[in-house]
Amino acid sequence: MSEEWVHFKIQSSDSSRSTSLAFRRQETSRAHKIAQELTEKGGQDLVGNLVRAVSETVFAETDSVFRTAYYLAKMNRPFTDHDSLIELQEKNGANMGTSLHSRYSSTKIVEHIAKEMQKEIVHSIVTSSSKLSVLIDEATSISHKSAMIVNLKASVDGATPEFLFLELVELESQRAKDIEEALLNCLDTAGFTEEWLQKNWVSFVSDGASVMLGKNSGVATRLTARYPNLFTWHCMNHRLELAVSDAVDEVQAVNHFKVFLEKIHNLYSQSNKNSRELLEAAQEVGSQVLKIGRVLSTRWVASSFRSVKAVWTSYEALNRHFENAAGDQTRSSTERQTYRGLARRM
């Protein structure tokens, strides 16, 4: 028994009316209500709820920024448009947050999205054991660095097989051994294991360069030694280009055609005055004008098609401009004669 009860120190409480009223006033006081609210909230996770609310807001803002960056990549727009689109959406009432608004952030966002999409595609190909074809081509950057473009052809989610860009790999050297090593490292990094490739890699396609298809130590030869079931193929587009190039060299009339288109290209690409007069001639005849490019030797088929299509579409405007320029007395006799010759050839 406690000491207070043993020594009779316990006394009854004051039961006077003043004391009872004091207790009642305390119960209804503002301080008591505040203390009661704090006691009730003490059992709740206020900090956790606050963090979750803030996180949801930040995630919503980040989603909006990510969608904006994805739009730029999807529509082939420059990353410099990123901050302008953010500002536009904010003026329209959207909450875009305060971070990830620069073009550098947009670049990193698109890289992140591309990597995640690539992971999903590769995972689908691997899990479904879809047969894989690999097409590579060499390229040179503006800074004169050698690179290898790696494309795949495979079925994704059971759909019809289609070509997919995988990676642009910088090459340390252009030897067959180094190209093979760079390609295998690229496939491994993407998620294609050696065991999976042995079972499902069925074809390798490249151009006809000796470093690629050389019989003794080309990339294709080295790969078939490692993957015996691999089928190698000289890219049909490259073969077609080579065939057309040989035919162009044999047919002299094609050279005259190329010279004619080259003259038209130089006429308007090197003179703003001629370009303006061509547009005025197009307005006179109600014709459309397409930009006339050069006929390239390395991609003759595609470049010549674009040039011929541009000349055909702009035929009426070109003919009218040639006739107007041939009779323009402000031009020299040499220029007028040049335009007369072009008009006759048209």
Automatic annotation (TrEMBL):
Residues 327-346 are annotated as: Disordered. This is DUF4371 domain-containing protein. It comes from Eleginops maclovinus (Patagonian blennie). The lineage of its organism: Eukaryota, Metazoa, Chordata, Craniata, Vertebrata.
